[in-house]
Write a structure and sequence with these properties.
Blueprint lengths: L4 E6 L3 H9 L2 H10 L4 H23 L4 E5 L12 E6 L2 H8 L7 E5 L12 E2 L3 H9 L4 E12 L4 E4 L2 E6 L5 E7 L2 E7 L2 E4 L7 H13 L14 E5 L14 E4 L5 E5 L5 E5 L2 E7 L5 E15 L1
Helix pairs in contact: 1-2
């Protein structure tokens, strides 16, 4: 399939978000510095990003036609099979874009290797054209990224590259029934994290860090997952007369599913990959099945 257009996807920098919030750069600076913050760090991060972004656009325009789409418009953007997706930003942006990519190859570029870990960013400003040309020439290598999938009983669904959160949008306890392998419990907790292998070094790992930290253990043993596994962990489960704590974590193997019934009259929700704008309401009467999705994303690798 001939690639005739590259879609460059970026997000606002933290500085841009601050200026949007406070109307001007000067007001944003006053707010941050009066609170004891380092405003220049926001400025340096912003400048570094746009230096990289300009270089990427300049190099890319010599190879293929392209246009820029802001992250906020990605959920409603209709990609074509003749497109190539170029993500410039942090790992979380790659995860968010992947859910809407429809098997279109993604070239993910780290614009600031001194600030971003780049777990999902195989390319940098210097070498990204290798990935672009390999896709155009149909000779690219790729990593297939598996999704976790949440499907409600009314048919609504949500995908996640890294993790799903099932819980309540406040500091009160999430109430629900949880079902796995024929066992069922009623829970009161801070919610449930369901992670893919890709996301297992992120939010899920922090739960293990907390648990082992409380136990005073210096050796942290994370769950070993393969690409076909999901792993769930219940956060801060509370045991009482009405609530139990036996089903609190474990693998969800391919073909199996975790079933959760909401017992929350309001404020229950499910969101993916740390993006609270990507959510499903999950209130009383709603049941969700969590499983490995048949869909995949195609991440071009170097």
């Amino acid at each position: 399939m001939k690639i005739d257009y590259a879609i460059i996807i970026k997000n606002k920098t933290r500085l841009e978000s601050l200026i949007e919030r406070f109307n001007t750069k000067a007001q944003a600076q006053f707010y941050i510095e009066s609170s004891g913050g380092d405003f220049q760090e926001y400025v340096k991060e912003h400048e570094r990003f746009y230096l990289s972004f300009l270089e990427i656009q300049t190099k890319l325009s010599k190879v293929i036609k392209n246009k820029v789409v802001e992250r906020e418009f990605v959920p409603s953007y209709i990609f074509s099979e003749n497109n190539l997706i170029v993500v410039v930003g942090q790992d979380g942006l790659v995860a968010n874009v992947a859910k809407y990519s429809k098997n279109i190859p993604i070239v993910a570029i780290n614009p600031d290797v001194e600030r971003y870990d780049g777990v999902l960013l195989p390319f940098n400003v210097q070498n990204f054209l290798n990935g672009i040309n390999s896709v155009i020439n149909e000779s690219f290598s790729s990593k297939r990224m598996k999704f976790a999938e949440a499907v409600l009983n009314d048919g609504q669904r949500l995908l996640a590259v890294n993790d799903l959160f099932i819980g309540i949008s406040s500091h009160s306890s999430a109430r629900y029934k949880i079902m796995l392998d024929g066992k069922e419990e009623t829970h009161s907790s801070s919610g449930i994290i369901v992670s893919t292998k890709t996301g297992s070094t992120g939010w899920l790992s922090s739960i293990f860090n907390m648990a082992y930290g409380i136990l005073g253990s210096k050796e942290i043993k994370y769950p070993k997952l393969n690409e076909e596994d999901l792993y769930f962990a219940v956060r801060e489960p509370f045991k009482s007369i009405k609530t139990e704590t036996e089903i609190c974590g474990g693998a969800i193997k391919k073909g199996n599913k975790l079933i959760i019934e909401s017992l929350m009259p309001n404020n229950g929700f499910i969101f993916s990959d740390g993006i609270e704008q990507d959510f499903l309401q999950f209130n009383s009467g709603a049941t969700v099945e969590i499983r490995l999705s048949d869909e995949e994303a195609v991440l071009v690798i170097n």
